[in-house]
Amino acid sequence: MMIKFPAQTYSSKPLKAGVVTKCTLAFSMALLVPAPIMAQESGALEEVLVTASKRSSGVSQHDLGSAVSVLGADTLNATGIVDIDAMASLVPGLNIESFGPGDSEYIIRGINSAGESTVSVYFDESPITGRFVEDGGGKNAPLKLVDIDRIEVLKGPQGTLFGANSMGGVIRIITNKPNLETFEGRVDTELGFTARSSDQNYDVNGMLNIPLVENTLGLRLVAYSDSTAGFIDNNQIGVRDANDVERNGVRTQVLFQPSDVFSLNASVTYQELESGHNPRVTPAGFFGPGGAFFINEGSENPRSAAPGGKFTNTEFSRTAWDEELLLASITGEYDIGKGVITAAASYFDREIQRHQDSTPLNTTSLRDFFTGLLGFDVPPASVVQQPQDREVASLELRYASRFNGPLQTVVGGSFQHEENLFENFVINANSDGLPVENFIPEAPTSVTGAGEPGEINSIFGRFLDGERERVAVFGELSYEVSPALEVTGGLRWFRFDIQENQGNTGPDFLAGGGALELDGDETTSTYKLNVTWRPNDDYTYYAEVATGFRPGGTNVASGTAAIAGGFVPPTFESDELRNHEIGAKLYLLERRLNLNLAAYWIEWDDIQVQTVAEGGFNFIDNAGKARVLGLEAEGSLHISDPLTLSFGFNYTNAELTEDQPFVVGGDGISFTGQDGDDIPKTPKFVANLGLVYDFVLGGWDSTARLDYFHKGDSNSDFSSRDALLGLPNPDFHKLPSIDRFDVNISFQKDNLTLGLFVRNLTDEDLIVDVVSSDQDPFAYIMGSPRTVGLRLGAEF
């Protein structure tokens, strides 16, 4: 399968304006219960209903013949989870690759690579999957999880019901809907203090539910605001606690239910987020951009690269991240007796202003470009400004049957239209790490290379402006061969159309005429076959074969790379995988033990990978095949009435099964992956344990919870050595393992809740990711040090 592009044509097209944004947040808290919800009086397990199968009524998590993890509202509140990034510590098989707030990629079962996202994300019925150019798998929307009913994590390819990008799985965020009978509200506050920070964290959020017309019309309002103190100092430009984050948001829902058979739910969510700096840290013993090389050496104010250290950033520019998002949706359901018809429409608009330090590239791959073509005496310190705007309009219509027989079906169709604008401006930075001024496309060569780096700012700019459309029809058919045996088959057909324009925007001597215009389309399909056996109410066994797919796309750097003598292919193709899985869901020990097991074998072809052209320009290409073998378990044990243990682990062996094609740079060295190399940033072993103890203290219902999370080590790149000459790969690093303990204690009486928490109890150095390239010198992405705080919540 591949996207077919006709011959390249050139045309001029005006650019849209970029947009900047702001921030906010909140967080809530109440009683705590482990993930599979426990019945408090009997010690037996309660059924948890999920809607992952899109059937007309919810299906028990235990009866569903596939791997699904569910985090309910009690678990989210008890553990203080308000972001998807924090969920990985409770969901086996879910991994997060994060470069800071708003710039995270979600990975399920080791399906990790550059390019389009491999995990689909839904907010109720609205798709909000991250997809921006230059590694579209990242930049997932950092929506705050406030007033949430549950989160479902579907593991393995979900191509038939959820379409492209769900090749690793799906994350579904289900909000609380308006209560049509009761006026109610809640306010939660949190105050916290993080080690190594001179500021404090705060979080305030509230919910108000108003029945406007009893049993017919209801309104539910949610608002939140939070501020997270920074803990990383940029010693290069003298900024303390640089990586602070602020977030603000509101959500409004209106539910209209005039009868028992029809309902209409409309929702609008708006959020702003602002981060002062990325959370990168230059390790001790390493230097910032250019190593010990003097930037602007010979000028009046030479500056050397600062040495690294614990919680020390050494970038020459401020790497702020500002964004705002708007999500509007409407969902209607009509029960026709023999099933339910659902129509869901949504509009998602996300605007980002991203900044990145460009100084490392200036002093390495682009050094000759600056000292030669641009006429600088020495390479300057500079900052990249990246305005990004993405708008997605989606529509889905489906029918889920409720027949009085062994046959059931889900059929439907979907349409999605997406518009993207990506701009990239490289601008000289002053000593404070800020752009000298706005980008000046018309700056001539004689001015740009005037011999005083840092005074004239225009270096170069580029853009990509495009549209995508997706059309799909899908269906699943389930047949009960017997009361205990069910067979399900699914198929999805879809078509993708892409139209994109890209080019350079200046200075004028680099613009190179009009834009490069690319058009393409692709038609393909995915399938699923599942057999589920339920010999009794306590045991469910299943076997499944399913395929997943994600589309190809274009490389935004294809036109610009030629400036530095490099070549970037204008397009890359789709990749696909096939998953073979067996699993069991068991109630044991008189239903005091819930145990879910799964084993899977995944074959992955034409993997989308990121590589670097001469000149330091990143691009995506297809390369090689991989195999993923895995084992997974999660569950909960009700030890006694006051004591409950939850647990989970995932073992993943993800490696290439053939050599990737050589991509040789100008130095004749290739670090492409070889047969047997592990897929980068995929730990082999991940585990979590949670211990919950319920007690009464002075008339207050109290709960103490201890959580432990372990993530094994992994590699930052495929190969540790050059495939041709055997030279060491300077960008190959070990991402060390993580061990983290969290403590949460809550007290509840009447409508009041008090809480104490300690995150990262032992104050470990939590290295959550690593970067290393000409463009990004070796740095760790750091998680938060120990944070201690108080919570207060009230219901009314």
From TrEMBL:
Compartment(s) of residence: Cell outer membrane
TonB-dependent receptor plug domain boundaries: 62-170
Residue ranges of domain TonB-dependent receptor-like beta-barrel in the record: 270-761
Keyword set includes Transport: yes
Main location: membrane
Topology of this chain in the membrane: Multi-pass membrane protein
Signal peptide, first to last residue: 1-39
Keywords: Cell outer membrane, Ion transport, Iron, Iron transport, Membrane, Receptor, Signal, TonB box, Transmembrane, Transmembrane beta strand, Transport
Classification via Pfam families: Plug, TonB_dep_Rec_b-barrel
Biological processes per GO annotation: iron ion transport
Cellular component terms per the entry's GO annotation: cell outer membrane
Top-rank lineage group of the source organism: Bacteria
Family as reported in the entry's similarity comment: Belongs to the TonB-dependent receptor family.
Record's protein name: TonB-dependent receptor
Organism of this sequence: Kineobactrum salinum
Taxonomic lineage of the native organism: Bacteria, Pseudomonadati, Pseudomonadota, Gammaproteobacteria, Cellvibrionales
